[in-house]
Design a protein that fits this description.
Blueprint (H helix, E strand, L loop, with lengths): L2 H8 L5 H11 L2 H10 L6 H27 L8 H11 L1
Amino acid sequence: MSRRAIWLMATDESDNHEILEIVRGKLIRSAGIWFDNNEPNFKKWSDFEAAFRNRYFSTTSTHKKFDTLKQRKQLPDEPITSYFDDIINLC
């Protein structure tokens, strides 16, 4: 089933249980365990979506920022204030 089909079905609350079962079948390893542990909290698709985004997308963003921060060096002609502001934004 395509992502679009899942999203379209998720907009109809009568199909929430079926959608969540489909999603559970797609999750593997730690994501599947996380789903199983939190499934009672998912009364509807939006409950799952918010929890999933909070759990997985925020950490992905944090890792990307940290990797960028580790690689960041002041450029030869870059003002210290620009470099400093960029470092602060990455923290």
